[in-house]
Fold:
Amino acid sequence: MPRPIAATIHTDALCHNYATLKARAPQARAFAVVKANAYGHGLITTAHALPDADGFATLEFPGALALRGAGVRQPILLLEGVFDADELHGAAQHDLWLSVHDEASLVRLEAMRLPAPVSVFLKLNTGMNRLGFPAEAAPALVARLQANPNVAAITLMAHFACADEAGKGIAAQMARFHAGTAGLALPVTLANSAATLAYPDTHADWVRPGIALYGASPFGSARSAASFGLLPVMTLASEIIAVQELAAGDAVGYGATFTATQRMRIGIVACGYADGYPRHAPSGTPLLVDGQRSQLVGRVSMDMLAVDISTLPAAGVGTAVELWGQALPVDEVAAAAGTIAYELTCAVAARVAVTVR
Ligand SMILES: *Cc1c(COP(=O)(O)O)cnc(C)c1O
Structure:
């Protein structure tokens, strides 16, 4: 039997989540954001599971070509644009839409003769201060793009820093966007998952949900994915491969960070940080043993972790363990480990077998 760890991708949940997000933003079209190998869920698997998606948004140029190669006909948006002239030429050839976020990308678009005009998403900075032109520069930039024969359609784009933070929100960024773009009659895209779910006035022409599509919450454990009707897409599961009986005073694993205060039974699970499980998950992080909630004990090692099975007498070698998934939200595991679901699903390692359902 092979090493028992596997990730299962539930494509029906993907379809359900896409439809759920569309229903939250009924006037908008929705890019399924599939950067980073669809947040670890598999780029082509995800695209094939969403044959009726309005469009896909990604970051990596080879991934965009792979989508075209897999027969994706819908719009494909490159969220960071292209990185050099070859990619720009390829984008025009394969009808990829591109974000243009700085002077260098604008100049590149003016200096070349493209085989076909490209659709441009003009990225405006409204306060995130990561990528984009100052929103106030929009009218002049739009005029410049409109005069460029390499440019087909133009869409205005911005990104929120705090749509997922209850106390901070989006008001200042929205005000800056509207002030900078007043009078420009162009399509607009602003909303990530958090804004799609929480702020209907951001929906505009295209929404860009990523994490919610995969059934995790952009708000972490503060507002559960289930409360929005979203279903987990990835289940990461393994099995117990050994059992240890501990006496009071016995420690577990590297660094002996956990010591039993009484007799205990622990299961050793075939899953470690080299599989993508977070090494910084502390003792107490939830896991499911044969569907029963239990907890991690001791430090996560490269290939294994330990789970308390003291109150689960039927558990032993071969018992199924869910690290996260349909019965244990990845958001809960992420919260226990001091991170976000995005980081966990993106980190699932190549050595983990993937099953598509
Ligand atoms: C990743 C990304 C998104 C999706 O964000 P989520 O929080 O996963 O919904 C949307 N827009 C841009 C520009 C992105 O880079």
The chain is about 25% helix and 25% strand. The chain has two domains: 11-218, 234-356. The mean pLDDT is 97.
